[in-house]
Specification:
The protein is mainly α. It is 70% helix and 0% strand. It has helices at 16-21, 26-48, 53-78.
């Protein structure tokens, strides 16, 4: 849940995130970028529809779990 709050901010790859992504496969980086953009848009789309911020964050956290699952599946294929 806590990590979902970061999707309130504009997606970007800089600083610590950029360092962590160095050496990762392009597929995993693409999933990460897709997640950042999609979850940011989802948060603001839900807010614009009048949802409470806590409910919007819960929805974003649920979808984030799906992206985490996708990354783990990609890592298992590599192994």
């Amino acid at each position: 849940m806590e990590s979902a709050w970061s999707y309130r901010y504009q997606p970007s790859v800089k600083g610590e995130l950029q360092k962590r992504q160095n050496g990762q496969s392009p597929t995993i980086q693409a999933i990460s970028w897709k997640a950042q953009n999609r979850l940011h848009k989802k948060y603001f789309r839900l807010l614009s529809r009048g949802k409470e911020s806590g409910k919007a964050i819960t929805a974003v956290a649920r979808e984030l779990a799906g992206f985490i699952w996708a990354i783990t599946q990609e890592l298992e294929e590599v192994r």
